[in-house]
């Protein structure tokens, strides 16, 4: 297979994966409840944006929504596990 065709094949396959994941995403307003939780202590050191993601997931789970975290970041995954948050299985990068 020539390099151009190979690159197009990979782009097409990865594009399908990205579209599948994006179809499962939703936007969430950062309500005062979420922002307050993000400022509270976590069981493990957590960076600012990770705090917002994890607080948002906790907010949704408190409303009995089935939510998983999709992340390649090992620190964020570790914090999520400590909070009992399920991880979405991603293809290794």
Give a written overview of the molecule:
This protein is mainly alpha-helical and 93 residues long. It has a domain at 27-87. It is 57% helix and 4% strand. The chain is built from four helices and two strands. The chain has helices spanning 3-23, 32-39, 48-62, 74-82; strands at 68-69, 86-87. The protein has a two-stranded parallel ribbon with strand order 1-2. Helix 4 (74-82) links the parallel strand 1 and strand 2. Helix 2 (32-39) packs across helix 3 (48-62). The longest helix has 21 residues, at 3-23.
Which stretches are poorly predicted, pLDDT < 50 over at least 5 residues?
none
- Span of the ends, CA to CA: 24 Å
Radius of gyration: 17 Å
The major β-sheet equals: 2 strands, parallel
Overall structural class, as computed from helix and strand content, comes to mainly alpha
Gross morphology is: elongated
- Please state roughly what percent of the residues sit in beta strands, choosing from under 5%, 5-15%, 15-25%, 25-35%, 35-45% or over 45%: under 5%
The percentage helix is 55-70%
- Widest sheet, order of strands: 1-2
Per DSSP E runs of 2 or more residues, the count of β-strands stands at 2
Tally the helices: what do you get? Answer: 4
Indicate the mean pLDDT. Answer: 87
Sequence of secondary-structure elements? HHHEHE
Salient structural properties:
single chain, 93 residues, mainly alpha, two-stranded parallel sheet, 4 helices, 2 strands
């Amino acid at each position: 297979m020539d390099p151009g065709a190979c690159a197009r094949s990979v782009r097409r396959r990865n594009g399908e994966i990205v579209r599948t994941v994006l179809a499962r995403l939703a936007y969430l307003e950062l309500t005062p409840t979420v922002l307050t939780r993000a400022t509270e202590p976590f069981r493990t050191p957590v960076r600012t944006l990770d705090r917002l993601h994890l607080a948002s997931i906790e907010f949704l789970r408190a409303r009995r929504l089935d939510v998983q975290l999709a992340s390649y970041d090992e620190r964020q995954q570790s914090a999520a596990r400590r909070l009992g948050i399920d991880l979405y299985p991603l293809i290794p990068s």
